[in-house]
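Dear support,

I submitted the protein below through the web form. The confirmation email said the job was done, but the results page showed an empty box. After a refresh the structure appeared. I'm attaching both so you can tell me whether what I see now is the final result or a partial one.
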Amino acid sequence: MLNFEDVEEWDGVRLSWNVWPSSRIEAMQTVVPISALYTPLKQQEDLPPVLYKPVMCKPPCRAILNPYCQIDIRGKLWICLFCLTRNPFPPHYKDISNTNLPAELLPKYMTIKYTLSHPAQAPPVFLFVVDTCLDAEDLKVLCDALVVSLSLIPPYALVGLITFSTMTQVHELGYAECNKSYVFRSSKEYMQKQIQDMLGLSTTTCAAPHWPTHAPTSFWSCLFLASCSAMRIPTHWHFGGTHS
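What the results page shows now:
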C-alpha cells in the first residue's frame, strides 16, 4: 500500500486529496477544493534536473507529461489525464519504448525539475500569504521563520506579502520609508475587477521596476513585489502586533 507520508517527504508536495474526482458532479460535491502545498527549491540529490523543456498538452490545457499519463508506444502518443486529449510525442522521442522511457515517465520522477536552455522571461516570485491571528510569542516565531525563509531565496527573486486575520492586507513593498498596505474587509465579498482597480493592477498604471542586471526587466509588478536582495526585512516584515 502506498505510504502518502513517504511520498510527501520525498517530493515536497502535499495534496488536499489523494484521489482525483472522476466526474464533474464529484468535483462539485468536493467541499475542500483540490490544492497542493509545494516546497520550493527542495533539494533532491538523487533526482538531478533534466536538461530539456517539458512536453505539454495542447492548449488550453497545457498539462505536463507525467508518470500518470497513459502512453501508446506503438502509436507514439500520450493521453492527458486531465482533459483526455491525445497528444503525439515530439520528434526527439522517436526511440521511446517500454525499456527506454524519458525521465518524466519514470515513477520516481513524480516531481521533476527542468533546466531550460533559454533564460526565464521573469525572475521567480515568492508570495508569502501569512495568517497573523496569533499571540505575540507565536507571531515572533513566525516572523523569525519568515526571515530565515528569505535568506534561502535567490537574491534576484521577487517577494510579495499578503497578511490576513480579521482583515486582509496587501503590503506595498516599493519603498522602505514606512509600512503601507491595502486593507480588505473579510466581511465583504470583492470581485476580481474591484481588487484590480483598488490595487491599480493594470498595464497603464504599472511600470517596470529596476531589477538586478541578471534579472529580466520585462516583468512588471507595481509596488507589491520587491527584489529579495533589496528588501529591508525589519521594516517590511513587522506586522504591527497581534490581530484577533
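Response: this is the final, complete result; the empty box was a page-load delay. DSSP finds five helices and ten strands in the chain.
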